[in-house]
Amino acid sequence: MSVRHALLALLAEGPKYGLQLRQEFEERTGTVWPLNVGQVYTTLQRLERDGLVASDEAVGDRTQRRFVITAAGQRELAEWLRTPPSLTTPPREELVIKVLVAARLPGVDLDEVLQVHRRKLMETMQQYTNLRAETPASDVEFAVVVDAEIYRIEGLLRWLDSAGARLSGRTAPPPAASSSAASSIGSGRSPSTATGSSAGGGTVRIGGTRR
Fold it and tell me: What is the pLDDT of residue 133?
């Protein structure tokens, strides 16, 4: 996630204070992507240094400064929106690394490791599924964020199944959408098989108080 460009997008709607930017960011993403105020002001400082935003420098207290997007910032935002993310270099997914290590480390039960991560991913996906069911129909932006997390987790769960099959010498399932997982997610039922996000990755904050 690019905090830099998220702030530019919010400023494209009009001038805003730093604390206001943080509040609006969290209102639109719920507690899925937490953002601390220090990160907001550090990013704004860099944007201002790069000429992408401007502020009332006469105000000493940074919390009282209003920030506005510049013409250069508008161009930067427009270019970013139309630039596909780089997929040439796979990210260093922690779950992938753990599975590869477990497959080679003596004395480690690979199936047990896979099951531990599968259970955690299933629990997390069910939490997101419940959260989506509780999301008001009017909160479209938040629903889109939750959907993205559900499908990301579904992908990792399917990868776990494929990795387990390959590493144990079985035939790996084809990388196609799982109809059973998709239908169970859409109906809000607990899916029996699916895919998920990194069980060992960053903290997932869901179900918290949304402002």
Answer: 92
11 — alpha (psi -120 to 50), left (phi > 0) or beta? alpha
CA distance 201 to 164: 19
Tokens of 156: 């990792």
For residues 41 and 45, what is the distance between their CA atoms, to the nearest angstrom?
Answer: 6
Domains of the chain as residue ranges with CATH: 3-81 (1.10.10.10), 94-187 (no CATH)
* Torsion-angle region of 151 (φ positive above 0: left; ψ -120 to 50: alpha; else: beta): alpha
The structure tokens 């009017």 sit at 138
- Asked whether residue 200 carries a pLDDT value surpassing 70, the answer given is no
* Top-confidence residue, 168 or 194: 168
Q: State the pLDDT at residue 60.
A: 60
Question: Which residues face 55 on adjacent strands?
Answer: 67
Tell me the pLDDT tens digit for each residue of 32-57. 777 888 999 999 999 999 999 999 87
Rg (C-alpha) for the chain, rounded Å, is 21
Place of tokens 């477990």: 102
Q: Are 62 and 41 in contact (CB under 8 A)?
A: yes
User: Parallel, antiparallel, or unpaired: how do β-strands 16-17 and 66-69 relate?
Assistant: antiparallel
- Average pLDDT value for the chain: 81
Closest Cα partner for 1 from 122, 28, 11, 66?
A: 28
pLDDT band (50, 70, 90) for residue 175: low
